[in-house]
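Task: sequence design from structure.
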């Protein structure tokens, strides 16, 4: 059974410069250790550490898809407003105006969908290497 932190009876101190301390903290942050003391204890005693590694391409994909989701949401809102306007039209001239706006909204949505497609293809090529 492991001793809790309150049952520790010895303390070890050592000095490091600021750059070394920052490196130790950075490495500690990449693990599942809850404190710097726990990290140093595990490192020194050779106990196993769980290191969390992040996948940069996955982070990029999530960022890009999040941005694209917001853009698609805005385009969908504009498209729904356009559909609402068509239900309120009472003349031929207004239909022509609505049709022009509708084509512009449609082109925006198709462009965003194409961006999603191209980004997914690019990401798939990176992952399949």
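Answer:
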């Amino acid at each position: 059974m492991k001793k809790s932190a309150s049952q520790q009876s010895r303390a070890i101190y050592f000095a490091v410069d600021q750059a070394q301390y920052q490196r130790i903290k950075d490495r500690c942050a990449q693990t599942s250790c809850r404190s710097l003391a726990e990290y140093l204890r595990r490192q020194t005693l050779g106990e196993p550490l769980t290191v969390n590694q992040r996948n940069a391409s996955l982070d990029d994909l999530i960022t890009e898809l999040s941005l694209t989701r917001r853009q698609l949401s805005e385009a969908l809102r504009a498209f729904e407003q356009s559909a609402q306007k068509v239900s309120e039209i009472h003349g031929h001239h207004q239909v022509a105006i609505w049709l022009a706006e509708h084509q512009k909204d449609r082109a925006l949505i198709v462009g965003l969908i194409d961006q999603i497609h191209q980004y997914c293809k690019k990401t798939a090529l990176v992952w399949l290497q």
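The chain has two domains: 5-45, 56-127.
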